[in-house]
Amino acid sequence: MSSAYLQCIEESCGRRQDPKKDAHACAFCGGLLEVKYDFEAFDPEEVRHAWHQRRLSGEPIDRSGVWRFRELIPFIEAGNRIISLSEGSTPLVGTRRTGWWAGPVHLTIKHQGNNPTGSFKDLGMTACITRADVRGVRMVACASTGNTSSSMAAYAARAGMKALLFVPYRQISAAKLAQSLDFGALVVEVGDTFDEAFRLLREIAPELGLYLVNSINPFRIEGQKTIVAEMLEQRAWRPPDYIVVPGGNLGNCSAIGKGLRELKEMGFIEKVPHVVVIQAAGANPFFRMMSSGAEELTPVEHPNTQATAIRIGHPANWKKARRVLEWTGGFCESVTDEEIYEAKAMLAADGVACEPASASTVAGVRKLVRAGKIPWHADIVCVLTGNQLKDTEYIMRHRAEAQETHQRLRVDPDLDALRKALEAALAVPA
Ligand code: F0G
């Protein structure tokens, strides 16, 4: 029997919600909701052993890097079907040059781009679509900068549900749009920003009876929080000093914070890493609020960054995210598009690639080390949230100078011409 219930996060309210409904906002005060459990007492050693053993299993539920940790997300009754695409189980990769460049720090990469649809969203989506399936939902909807939509489209297809996506017109990468279309979703291009598309979706959702799977849906956060257990297991349960994530709608940092808090309360870890959020300078309302000490978030009206995944001016989860930074002694930093590109190029030189939003983490670490806010040789995990091929237009734009730097040659099909061209190009050091 599941002990899960939904509760308002507002201190002045904190009320439990009607268990018959999966709401996205408190029925009493409109605040954000979170999933709570009456966890049974765990023996962390035993549970760790069970998680480890499941890696040898061929069962789909055990092959998922989310459901393998099912003791942490007991909101589905045993026997219900799980909508999974074998998400999670992503690599933790050491860096060589990037750690020196950004620090010197001990920098590892948790690469969430290695998920079925190429982003970290798949962790939350398996949880949320499974929940929707149990509830008998036939149509799911989200607004998105491109990754949530691709992920939702895939998991909805898997579950046999209709998928309705709202995306800002011409503001998401072609690859992400193509993914969603490929999975058969209905794509509505509306508004200039994610914020506009999201506002319209929230307004129309009750009329159409839509089940929203944006990160205001607390079950998304449940799936996403399992990244912490997987990362710690890969590190032999030694927490790093810092976990660094990009900040858009601020669901991911909320999920990581919730995961850390629960693992600490259950005795899996003693030390809690500082959670650090990095925003793009043109879309940094959370950074502005945290650094000014303001009580409330002031939205950025015209968010702008080439890291389109995090081009968000009014993040829905800012209250959860602020709590996480307070609990963990974390902070927020803001980086320019130029700094993001430098970090992305540096990672690529290390053989690690990602989409631009993800590289903001490494750019943020470099900036924070230079400012003396993160000490030299700190043990840091940067979460790379999306795959390199999510935004190839960005790469081609930035590598346009490749022609002049002898990285890309167009040569007449003639041996002499080929020799001449290669002589110059191969003289350039690696
Ligand atoms: N990185 C990538 C690649 C993303 O797609 C997103 C968010 C983030 C970071 C930020 O995560 O919103 O949890 O703070 N993408 C959402 C989307 C908004 O619609 O795909 P967050």
Q: Would you give an account of this structure?
A:
With 430 residues, this protein is of the alpha/beta class. Among the domains are: 1-41; 92-118 and 220-396, 3-Layer(aba) Sandwich (Rossmann fold), CATH 3.40.50.1100. 40% of the residues lie in helices and 13% in strands. It is built from 15 helices and 12 strands. It has helices spanning 44-54, 60-63, 97-102, 121-134, 147-159, 174-182, 194-208, 218-234, 251-265, 285-292, 318-328, 337-349, 356-370, 392-398, 415-426, and strands at residues 5-8, 33-36, 92-94, 106-111, 139-143, 162-167, 186-189, 211-212, 242-246, 274-280, 331-335, 379-384. The chain has a 6-stranded mixed β-sheet, sandwiched between helices. Strand 9 (242-246), helix 9 (251-265) and strand 10 form a beta-alpha-beta unit. It is globular. The model has no long low-confidence stretch (mean pLDDT 96). Bound molecules: ligand F0G. Ligand F0G binds next to helix 5, helix 9 and helix 13.
